[in-house]
Automatic annotation (TrEMBL):
Residue span(s) of domain Peptidase M48: 73-295
Name of the featured protein: Protease HtpX homolog
Positions of transmembrane segments: 12-34, 40-57, 150-171, 191-211
Main location: membrane
EC number, as in UniProt: 3.4.24.-
Enzyme class at the top of the EC tree: hydrolase
Active site: E141
Family: Belongs to the peptidase M48B family.
Name of the encoding gene: htpX
Keyword Methyltransferase annotated: no
Amino acid sequence: MRTRFRPDRQLTARMVFTMFLLGLVYVAFVAALIVLIKSVFVVVLIAGGLLAAQYWFSDRIALYAMRAKVVTPEEEPRLHGVIDRLCATADMPKPRVAVADTDLPNAFATGRNTRRAVVCVTTGLLRRLDTAELEGVLAHELSHVAHRDVVVMTVASFLGVLAGLVARFAFYSGLFGGRGRRDGNDNNAYLVVLLVMVVSAVVYAVSFLLVRALSRYRELAADRSGAMLTGRPSALASALTKVSGEMARIPTRDLRTAEAFNAFFFAPALGSRASLSTLLSTHPTLQRRLDQLAAISTELGGPAPNP
């Protein structure tokens, strides 16, 4: 899909490289499991089916999980008006528009292609941002759709589930299968289970770090593309600062519930426990994002953002 969003070749290269590495990791993973257990194909088949389901129905799954609903222009004229203007400026098809009734100020985009794309914002975000700030956030989310990184993140994030499913399957099959054996093979069965658990842990750790690295870069890419499209980096910087500050006022229970969506949110929903390090975070730091927007503002010849 060709749009007026500035192409990001570094983002494309990182997406291809991440998927390539994940592919290698899981080919090695499956090969190792074939050697260790004979029924791995059943697990792979189940995981493959779940992956296909998430790919085809990712938009519905996300909306259902956030208790969001698609809204019409009559129901949300301000929201639709901003998206209409941005899509006309970007020369891209208009995605479906949804609203989640929660005080958590955030937004996300999902969908396997432009025809199935949906941009969702929360009522908490709509209440807190003015029109210019909302435009900056929505331009950020539309860039995810235009660059197709939403699809890559959906697939890449789900691949880690395979390791967990295989480990659980191996654990229970070894645990309950070994109890009924009287031929002295129990130790071998438990050794296989242990090896599967170790291999699964390594695969999960590698995929976790690769997905986190891609997630951080794609957020910077979306900030950059969104700011360039609107020509107002200061509005996006103001929205970032406001949303990040308002997170502290959201009940911890609500933040923990939403943490599963961190990789897809405009701004991370952090609970009472912050990430141990930048390496484990789904988003770059707020200061890193603001610094980039300040540089873009200078590039465009405008005043530096000062939220």
